[in-house]
Amino acid sequence: MIQVLKVSKKYLQGKQEICALNDVSFGIEKGEFLSIMGPSGSGKSTLLNLIGGLDQPSTGEIFIDGSPLHGISDDALTLIRRKRVGFIFQFFNLLPILTAAENVGLPLLLDGVPFSRIQEKATHLLESVGLGSRTEHRPEQLSGGEMQRVAIARALITDPAVLLADEPTGNLDSHISEEILGLLKNLNQTGQTIVMVTHDSRAASCGKRIITLKDGGITEDIAISGSSS
Ligand SMILES: Nc1ncnc2c1ncn2[C@@H]1O[C@H](COP(=O)(O)OP(=O)(O)O)[C@@H](O)[C@H]1O
Ligand SMILES: [Mg+2]
Description:
Mean pLDDT: 93
Helix content: 25-40%
CATH architecture: 3-Layer(aba) Sandwich
Bound molecules: adenosine-5'-diphosphate, magnesium ion
Low-confidence stretches: none
Structural class: alpha/beta
Largest sheet: 6 strands, mixed
Number of domains: 1
Order of helices and strands: EEEHEEHEHHHEHEHEE
């Protein structure tokens, strides 16, 4: 479903060139739960951002469902990002002035769908992540785990082909992390394709497959049998 072909990403820092990703190739099948693991600075976020169309490779190609993410207009890329990909982040990235339901509905609001039509789906998604009683709360009235649940519901509202998660438990204590990882596993069991970046091997083991990055290259790509909790 996703092909990453000979992708490299170089950043210029002053006059120094930093190679964040070096000739990375792999595929992701529909229904996979892929963990991308590696130490800080190994290129995990760079890779996830490229897959999500938030950034462009220096060289190489990425395809989602056969459609290239390169050589297309900014508008086309924005549409793919908005409709085909759902993102969740370490720091949730919720808008503080919006309620939980409004945050969840935002991607569709940006597409011009009236909120009255979105509300039902937003409420349903919040219920499905266990927040049916928090729809009118603002982020500051929610715990970290609850905020991440809102972010997950928001990422799902467009029925994305793939859910991309960058250190989704990086800012949560271990008990809450387990809950969020359990939620992601449940989502995957219903067929949702997930790619999760983490530096934590315990979190990574929730996936069905683990790719390990080091210095911008893949050092290991293993399937997990009967993935643990
Ligand atoms: N926008 C940027 N400009 C310059 N260097 C960057 C930028 N983003 C990432 N890097 C560098 O690329 C490397 C990989 O970063 P990143 O993908 O964020 O790693 P990880 O998510 O594994 O911690 C690091 O050396 C980082 O400093
Ligand atoms: Mg990172």
